[in-house]
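Predict structure. Chain length: 231.
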Amino acid sequence: MPNHRTLVITGASSGIGAATAKLAAGKGWNVVVAARSTDRIEALAAEIGTENAMAVTCDVTDWDSVKNLADATIDRFGSIDAMFANAGFGGPGGFTNSTPEAWRDMVLTNVYGAALTVRASLDHLRTSNGHLLLTGSVAGRKAIPGSFYSCTKWAVTAMGEAVRGEIAGSGVRVTLIEPGIVATPFWDNGKGPLESPLTEDDVAGAVLWALEQPPHVDINEILMRPAAQPV
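Prediction complete.
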C-alpha cells in the first residue's frame, strides 16, 4: 500500500537516481524524478506509473529551476518527505590535463547544485520531519591523485556535516551516501576498472535502508565499496 511519503531525486535520468526512484516507488513512495534530460525523466516517470511519479525538468545549477522543483512537488503531493541530492558528474584528467571550464561545471553541479537543493528543500523537510540525503563518494573520503572530482566530493562530505549541525534537533535526518566504484554510465565501459563493481541497485538499496530506519535513528554516513576495491 502507498505510504504517501514523497521522495525527490535530482540526477534521476539514469544510474543511481533512476534505480532509487524505481525501488522507492515499488515500496509505496511518491517519487519526483528531476534532471535536465526531459525525455529521459518523463520516460522514467511513465515506467514507474502516473499515480505516484512525476518528472520535473531541473538544472541544479540554477536557483529558480531548483526552487521550481520544490514548488512543483508541494503542488502535486503536498510535502517533501525526503530529498536526495544526487546530481553530479566526474571526468578524467589531473590538475594539468583537465580544463578550467570542466572544473567550473563540476563545482557548479556537484557542490553549488547540491547546496541549492538543500536550500530549496530544507524548510519543507523541517515541516515533514523529513530526510536529506546527499551523494558523496569514496573519493570524498580518500582523494584520488589529481582528481578534481575528489575535491568536489570532499566538499559534499563537509556539506553533509555542516547541514546536520545546523538542523540538529529539528527532526530532520541527514545521510551521506558514499559509494565506491559503481556500474553506471559514469564509466565509458559501463562498469569501471573492476569485474564486480557495485550495481545501481546496491546503492539504491542503501538509500532505502537509511530512509526506512525509525525516526529517532539518523544514519549519518553509508560508505560502501565493492569487495574487490582496494582503496
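Summary: The beta strands are 6-10, 30-35, 53-57, 82-85, 131-135, 173-179, 182-183, 198-199, 221-224.
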